[in-house]
Design goal:
about 40% helix; alpha+beta
Length: about 110
């Protein structure tokens, strides 16, 4: 997976927009970040999961998914190693992250699966 593929997948989420934060692109819905690119470097992306969701993604593909170091990671922020990630897994992670921060009214309108 390339950064451009991650970007395209993130922007397919309903009402997702690309912005920037701390020198790298991020993806938002309702003004809240659900994913970013380039953290900690250009080989990586990040999805904003819950700790339980993070545990499941890491267990399903520990090469592609890993907790962000420190407090953010303990709260569910999850790194994605782009070169090892599969499109299907990243698409699911992005939808999960999107649902975590999307406005409730919008999230209810979007069917998963």
């Amino acid at each position: 997976m390339t950064p451009d593929t991650f970007r395209r997948l993130a922007l397919t989420m309903p009402e997702a927009v690309e912005a920037g934060h701390m020198g790298h692109p991020d993806f938002r819905v309702g003004g809240k970040v659900f994913a970013s690119l380039g953290y900690p470097d250009d080989r990586w992306a990040m999805v904003k999961l819950t700790p339980g969701q993070q545990e499941a993604f890491v267990a399903s593909d520990p090469v592609a998914f890993s907790p962000v170091k420190g407090g953010w990671g303990r709260r569910g922020a999850t790194n994605v190693l782009l070169g090892k990630a599969k499109v299907a897994g990243v698409r699911t992670a992005l939808m999960t992250a999107w649902r975590n921060v999307a406005p409730a009214k919008l999230a209810k309108q979007v069917k998963v699966g």
